[in-house]
Amino acid sequence: METKRFKNLWFLVINGVIFILFGLLLIFCTQETILTLVKYFGVLLVAGGVVLLLVGINNIRKDKAAAMILVEAIASGAIGLALILFPQASLSLFLLLIGIWAIIIGIIQLVTIINIKGIIPNKNVHLINALLTIGLGILLLFKPFGWAVFMGVIIGICAVLFGALLLYFSFILWSLKSDAPTVLPK
Known about the structure:
It is a single chain. By secondary structure, this protein is an all-alpha fold. It has one domain. It is about 80% helix and about 0% strand. It has 6 helices and no strands. It has helices at about 10-30, 30-60, 65-85, 85-115, 125-140, 145-175. The termini are close together.
């Protein structure tokens, strides 16, 4: 195996800093910030809808198929407008759908655990996963926006920790002597 030295340590440092900044944004962002981000996403969807509409019209002029592109343009524009005009309601609806999905997935996991006897190793871990998934779904049904903020904070904490680990790893690699080879695959 050929030994190679990792020469782009700055790449790890930049990724670590980006993860830390992203994590801090998630930890300290308020509900207003989340709603503003939802509105910006709506603007992007409307812009994408306009571009798709222009592509569809161009395809009609060239006698090409345009029906699906036009349907996608209208759907994208409508969803974007809904996100811009009703960001809280749109986000709550999305989180309610995630809650319903989580409950269905948890129930499917429970049914699978019950029906497959003796085949699944660590059955208790799968049972806990199914119950936690159902619990998350129920929580999202009752207070979707509050739990979304909480999950954002948890993801933010994980991102900060991951970024710190990336920085630590890059400094460890940096501190290695230049004559000590680092083995990396081709």
